[in-house]
Amino acid sequence: MTESRPRNPGAIAEPATVRAMFDRIVPRYDLMNHLMTFGMDLRWRKLIATRAAAMGDSVLDVATGTGDVAFDIRAAGARTVIGLDFSPEMIGAARTKGAARGSDIEFLIGDAMALPFPDNSFDACTVSFGLRNMPDYAAAIAEMTRVLRPGGRFVCLEMTPYRKPVLGRLFSLYFEKIVPIVGGVLSGDIGAYRYLPQSVANFPASTQLVMLMRAAGLTNTHVTMLGFGTVAIHTGTKELGSGS
Fold first, then answer.
1. Could you tell me the pLDDT band of residue 4, with boundaries at 50, 70 and 90?
2. Domains of the chain, with CATH numbers?
3. Quick one: DSSP state of residue 186?
4. Angle, alpha carbons 210-109-185 (nearest 5°)
5. SS3 of residue 217 by DSSP
6. How many CB atoms lie within 10 A of CB 196?
7. pLDDT grade, residue 15 (50/70/90)?
8. Model pLDDT for residues 80-102, shown as the tens digit of each residue
């Protein structure tokens, strides 16, 4: 049986709505990420950071949030790391963290759909738990591919629609009922954590995301499933003959 295609080509909410939501939840954002994943997000972020830093010295982290992946990439050995996010409050939090750590990472407010960098600028580009929130998945992947050098690597860490029948009901109960309640109590914004499972349900399945990556000019695509099949790392390499 073939998997159904996502209802929309991108996020279930308009960019301005998504930006305002992330601006509101900054104070408890890191805590909720750790609680929701039982701390596994820390290991997942280090995994993608290692894969990105292995490609070279220059790495762009898109939808950087409060900067955790960017810091991990720098710690993994990349010399030039830029974190970009469209939420001013998220970038403010990332800059505060960076100042406290004495970090040289540059954090920029910017749009993932129109990255402010020339073609072929980076050895790797990462995006973690952010692609779901972009208005056009295919265009976002193509834009991140554009700024990669030929042979550079795209690395995406993202939740993926969970359809395993054995654990599906338990996961749905946790993700759709418990997480919004806990998130609402801790952040004061239950709507943001109701948005989360809805956005995941709308997101392309892993096989479909690979198709979008290949359409953008990424080859050697690979998928690593994590979190009992609820999270995936997608990687792809920009074609060597591609100039943009």
1. very low
2. 15-161+205-237 (3.40.50.150)
3. H
4. 80
5. coil
6. 20
7. very high
8. 999 999 999 999 999 999 999 99
SS3 195: helix
Which residue is listed with tokens 């998928």? 223
DSSP letter string, 89-108: HHHHHHHHHHHHHT---EEE
Q: Residues of the chain with pLDDT > 90: what percent?
A: 70
Measured distance CA(146)–CA(143) in Å, rounded: 5
Beta strands in the chain (DSSP E): 58-62, 80-85, 106-109, 122-128, 148-159, 218-226, 231-238
Residue 219 has which token pair? 């080859």
Q: What does the pLDDT look like over 174-226, one tens digit per residue? A: 777 787 777 777 778 888 888 888 888 899 999 999 999 999 999 999 999 99
* ∠ Cα 43 190 90 (to 5°): 50
Q: In the predicted model, what is the mean pLDDT of residues 7-18?
A: 86
What tokens were used for 103? 């970090």
Q: What is the largest CA-CA distance in the chain?
A: 53
